[in-house]
Amino acid sequence: MLTLHKAAAALPKPSRSRMCEFLRSFGFDPGKLFLHKLILGIETSCDDTAAAVVDESGKVWGEAIHSQTEVHLNFFISSRTGGIVPPVAQQLHRENIQRIVKEALSTSKISPSELSAIATTVKPGLALSLGVGLSFSLRLVDQLKIPFIPIHHMEAHALTIRLLNKVEFPFLVLLISGGHCLLALVRGVSDFLLLGKSLDIAPGDMLDKVARRLSLIKHPECSTMSGGKAIEHLAKQGNKLHFDIKPPMQRAKNCDFSFTGLQHVTDRIITQKEKEEGIQKGQILSSAAHIAAAVQHTTACHIAKRTHRAILFCKQRDLLPQSNAVLVASGGVASNFYIRKALEIVTNATQCTLLCPPPRLCTDNGIMIAWNGIERLRAGVGVLYNTEGIRYEPKCPLGVDISEEVGEAAIKVPRLKMEI
Length: 420
Description:
By secondary structure, the protein is α/β, with parallel strands linked by helices. Helices cover 45% and strands 16% of the residues. It folds into 2 domains: 31-160 and 364-379, 2-Layer Sandwich (Nucleotidyltransferase, domain 5), CATH 3.30.420; 171-356 and 399-409, 2-Layer Sandwich (Nucleotidyltransferase, domain 5), CATH 3.30.420.40. It has 15 helices and 11 strands. Strand 4, helix 5 (127-144) and strand 5 (148-152) form a beta-alpha-beta unit. It is an enzyme of class 2 (transferase).
């Protein structure tokens, strides 16, 4: 018997697709038997239409995404409004969602009947965009008679790292994007303590506005890039110390952020340089790379200092282990490698480990939504068998806010050399 067991173990294991075909040939539904649970994740919170199929082992079976970046850039050129245009985003989601979901399922070689549940972003985000994803998902859930898992967009970003690494709770997460800037302690799948947030705009929004003010869309190297990507690209050619731009909120001993002041200071510098160079607004400054480098450096220093204080606070309160604590940086702005380097300086100084999802998983995607569905399915949290009354929420806080408690602790942060 032992010999037979060893021989069987040596045989190649059938692929999942072959196993599924075998079960179907006998009239069985693979998704509802002993195979891994399969979740379809759908993301439409802003300007990307995305879908993915992920199983409970973390394997991505198929994904698809439609980016609206170029459309909104072209809309900016014609209308001068800048940013995401909600009605345009809504229409593009409507035009693409069915195709994207079909593509994700087709790539995964999974039929809809094999899905265990559907997970969809319902909060926070642009109301018009969220509505498209939710309506489509509810129709599909009703048709397939499977559970629905509503997803908090920022929680999904926070937990993406657990798809790739064995990260145990608790850990600290920094979520930085075009719409959000949050520092939170993650204690469980749906257990978050908010340590700090932006008091005005998000860093990605600020970088986009600076890029528009610099007219980087007219720069030959940046014409197809988003604002943040254009700043990062151009900053490599500039001197970060050419302009003296101070980080905001230096006297506030909390973990909150502010980026509006930085935007205004930069705008004044650009206006002054336009006068000095004798060019009109909308033309490319010769010092554009220096401005991009200075803004990026100041942004990185500001984010790093608030994160440093959050780590010290959590360790003082025994909310994180004293050694080998984990800091996760995620969200679109976390794909900026300069900002990552600044965070590495902080984690090295505090005996922590910095983990970042790859850039493609830092920006909005269907994989993180499907994975968050898996996490919730495992934990038995937020899995709905009755979707009556489910609504999208454009504004929704993350976890329990203890930012005032952090401020009251008034922790002084040691100065670190940001030599990047």
